[in-house]
Please model this.
Amino acid sequence: MTINIALLGFGTVASGIPFLLKENGEKITAQAGTDIQIAKFLVRDDAEKQALLAQGHQYEFVTDITAILNDDTIDIVIELMGRIEPAKTFITQALQAKKHVVTANKDLLAVHGSDLLKVATDNGVVLYYEAAVTGGIPILRTLANSYTADKITKILGVVNGTSNFMMTKMVDEGWTYDEALAEASRLGYAESDPTNDVDGIDAAYKIVILSQFAFGMTIKFEDVRHEGIRNITPEDVKLAQKLGFVIKLVGEIVERPSGIYAEVVPTFLPKNHQLATVNGVMNAVFVESIGINEAMFYGPGAGQKPTATSVVADVIELAKGIDKGEVLPAFNTFTRETVYATKEDLVDKYYFAIETEDKAGQLLHLAELFHAENVSFEQVFQENIGDDRASIAIISHKMDLNQFDSLVEKISNLEGFTLRNTIKVI
Amino acid sequence: MTINIALLGFGTVASGIPFLLKENGEKITAQAGTDIQIAKFLVRDDAEKQALLAQGHQYEFVTDITAILNDDTIDIVIELMGRIEPAKTFITQALQAKKHVVTANKDLLAVHGSDLLKVATDNGVVLYYEAAVTGGIPILRTLANSYTADKITKILGVVNGTSNFMMTKMVDEGWTYDEALAEASRLGYAESDPTNDVDGIDAAYKIVILSQFAFGMTIKFEDVRHEGIRNITPEDVKLAQKLGFVIKLVGEIVERPSGIYAEVVPTFLPKNHQLATVNGVMNAVFVESIGINEAMFYGPGAGQKPTATSVVADVIELAKGIDKGEVLPAFNTFTRETVYATKEDLVDKYYFAIETEDKAGQLLHLAELFHAENVSFEQVFQENIGDDRASIAIISHKMDLNQFDSLVEKISNLEGFTLRNTIKVI
Model:
């Protein structure tokens, strides 16, 4: 038997797939129990087709999706075009044509995943997407297959390589945000418009998908609070170090008694936290649960070969089942009603960076404010920063979101005090 | 439908299973597609049975394995007795009675795994054992299901919690081996005879099993060179730190052009290596491959709930298939002929700890020896240690095992020089 696949798009990741099928062909065939063969490649237009043929690529390139949809020999369609359209339409049409689909398209899955999964179910086929979250880390299949007996209580993820590269430079080298962005651009890690990476949007997409696998709940993308790394200053980084922390952009999903909550925000991580050593463009997902307790899954978040490896692993899973004539299981079978946590139930420590006149009694004013909110200090660091000004950094004990909002308002309104930044502390 | 399971043994891990089935019952039933129920518990004798009943446990305790073997309502047998016998006999009998078996017994699997797997195949049932390697880290299923498209070139594992706890104390606190062992014993991490943990035997068992999943080859236990942590001195730890490393007991499996090689040895890890921050009783498996490149899987290596979680995840996988009437796939389907690497193909850096008289020309003697073997220095650190004696620590560049053996012999025979220790450097 041979399983025929069609690829949509001939970009970086897509061109890694023929590499793997050739380089690891023997193992892949043995694992799948069948040959896997690329039947067709969908490219943009005739110009791209001619260019690829001229480069010596010997695939059947087509420019019209119907050539794939109507080809009954094709079992699996792999979408690697990215963005929303035409990927969404093509995936929908492929599912309707009873073809299984593999994709790495996190933007699409985070926003339209539920709709696409319904189309798949209605047509008796499945949609797999291991590569959509942290490209090379096999986290989704692990959550789906190895956490079946466990109850996850918290996910912490460093899931955006570009921003993590920048934060690593800001922490290790003391660079400013702008210096780190310039280097990320120079190295090709940051796009010309870096918004999705530096503002936490890309990470929030991944958090939506992780919430489905880890908690069985579908948090809407617009319900994931996201705040990027633009406002992190070298002062924050330095103060973090003095207080025993490193700053990273962390996506967090937590289940509390009242429900679930997710956000992507700059976060103080204790230096000895396993996530604190995840540096450069590497990604990691830290999982807290009642059974396994603490585990971390670390690896490349992107890149041609890591992403292609995850895509082909999905294809092999599908091929195994097709070969045996089995009904293929959905990629994720864990679903519960989505219930959001209340603000009272969201309890964290925070870092407050405050500037004020360097004179007696200033810290007392702050202590009174915190005391009135029933929140105590865990660490305080004060220093003179010149011009008779003092910098006061506070690591608080735990407070709920209402207390936090109230404290932020009160400090902001305190005459002679500037609240320069607040950052969540793990 | 209800899947009935029988448990052999009522130790720490076994008693974690009823906890999970109760605490996560709803999720487990949903994931398995069926109820999972404990039908019988095998205990040692009537005294243990009476004691457990007196404690209020309301299971059907049996003292004779035939009560389980002859019970046609039992689909899955879970062996959690440990050691070789009677576990080996009971597992064999259960497989012959056409019952699927789940076990966490690494000693047994490392030595008799191939035989047991053959019995399973011959009887049309399967043997699953996720919990046998690094209890709470779902590494075996990940290697089996997510590395299907990849080719693994190296595995590095910190896979023994007791010795890692001790090495962490020796590195972070400067403790001696004996001090660390005393604390590990006090905390219940080390058994009264700590041989298996501190001499790398337990880790070697796990390395055998990992070699099967990662490389498709079965390295014999006696072919895994193992050397423990007894000979690591505070001087070695201090020198490692000066040279930019931490020492850990690391299991390594590497595939070279000529074949495969595995060993468990104390290892210098660069401070920024992801494994270097795996501390205390925690475990991690670092995987290098041509597709994903570098990934690490971190978590608890033992413990009641982590291990029970992995066991129940295996049970759920089995229950899913039984419920659907499918032929269950073997736990690991990746097999190749086992070929061992040649000594010439095993190339590593090494740390040499040497003591000699503190006088002119001593380093020159060593430099000449290394030069004669065509091996160069990467780092050298020399200091006077009193009594006109000098300590010389050398980190070499890469050499093969023949060069290493030759250098060790030559330095040992060099008059006036003592070769205090050699340690592999990653």
Remarks:
- Chain B touches chain A through 58 residues (CB under 8 Å).
- The CA atoms of residues 251 and 264 of chain B lie 4 Å apart.
- Chain B has a mean pLDDT of 96.
